[in-house]
Structure prediction request, 559 residues.
Amino acid sequence: MSFTVLAIILIGRLLDLRLDKREFLISKAHKQYVKIETMPAHRGRIFDRNGELLAISVKSKSVYVRPKEFITEKHRWAQLEKLLNQKENYLTKRVEDRMSLPFVYLQPRSISPQVFDKINSLNLKGLFFEDSFTRFYPSKNQMSHLIGFSGDDQRGQEGLELLYDHVLSGKPGSRKVYLDAKKNIFKEPKIIDMPTPGSDLTLTVDQRIQYIAARAADEFKKYHEAKAVSIFIVDVFSGDVLAMANSPTFNPNNIKERTPNNVRNRSMTDTFEPGSTIKPFTISAALSTQQYDTNTKVNTPPGHARLGSWPVKDAKDFGVLTVRQILEKSSNIGAIRISNSIKSAYFWQLLNDVGFGNQTGIMWPGESSGKLNFFEDWHSTEKASLTFGYGMSVTIAQLARAYMVFANGGCLLPLRLIKGNNYNEKHQVLDSKISEEIKNMLVSAVQFGTGKRSKVSGYLVAGKTGTVRKIASGSYEDDAHLALYAGIFPASNPKVVGVVMVDNPIKGGSSGGEVAAPIFSKVMAQSARFLNISKEKKREKTPYKEFEIVKKPSLSKRS
Prediction:
């Protein structure tokens, strides 16, 4: 009797499963052997302006584990740690704290085909692979701040990889995979959606010039024992950024080198007081008022003054100077005297027109706008201090963009990093005659002034040095400086503007003329052939008459 009852119960249960729970059981079984996998999209490549490859994604494998299964292989974990190039007990820390999770990715998440073969041969329970891509940067350290890098998920995290992630990333696809009890594929996967690859990017940057700038930044950072060196080079007629180099730098292929100090793109994010590099704009404002011309005389005795409680002085008492000589000798007192006759609103407008206090047009992640207070908010001495570059802050990119105005006839253009972008509308912000006059003055500053060490053999150079005391704990330091140089190359037929910033040089000088100007000279001399700039024919006389009558002044150690 009991067997009959048991048989009836079993038959009833079978009917219940067959009729009432049929769909539920089919669905559950389906989930156990059918899996929907994401198919990663191929990330777009990045090229320089000449088609040189700067970033590419290559197929690889990602490693992940299911902790509850993988824990049974703990006695063999040391073998896997060696293949992953991880320290002892890495897997213990990585897996045992995540036992409740369905899966855990191991690092490095993407591995090479050779490493994949070795790991796969271990046949570890609970360890699985999935198809992925690894981002590779052939230029390594040279382009790192510019290109940035993407993460394990192939999403941009820094630089252009982040800025143009929406262009490069594409759209993932999906496929249906059939697995047996051991999670092996036993049937051809079925494609649900094909992945859409990302688009390629072609940059305005010239890898050859970038290499020269990056190498110089590293070399001079070590030589001067400086905190950092940045070099920025831009085409004066298009706004194309040709090089953007910073040191310290990092290899984007090496995760361990991606520290905040190394990764920061100082050219776009760090601000500083521009010092004497701002004086050409002070002179521009003076000439624009038509109260001055290049030969107007300005009294500078006794060679020193006070702005509130702050003493300001020149290298010496220069006496009476022409406007040209004020720029040539980098006279702070001359700049202050000129500012007294320029309306604050007018001076502010010119600084704003050339881009100070505004972003450069690149739309860089974390780009700083610098600081230029509105003239109605200036305190009693602010206009005077602005004339020689204190009381405002700029980025290297802003300074380079502003100096383009002296090289291209007075036009301001947004900077651009992507070749073919048509957003470089130009605006006339300075009279072309004044622009030319300032450029000629900057030639004089190189020929006879503080910029002598920026000369390039066979070419005429225009430029201005700057030396800025750094601020610490709310006051200026006597022994910590920024050395600056902003130049136009070549001055006779301008092609590029270059800006060099050396942060706190310890050895080999501290002024812009001693430290930054020689870096500009070296970079331009080596870049000339890539810019297709031929050396000028030697002349008995310089094309600028003023050079024949101006006597060489005594140079100060600072500018």
In short: Residues 35-202 form a domain with the Penicillin-binding protein 2a (Domain 2) fold (CATH 3.90.1310.10).
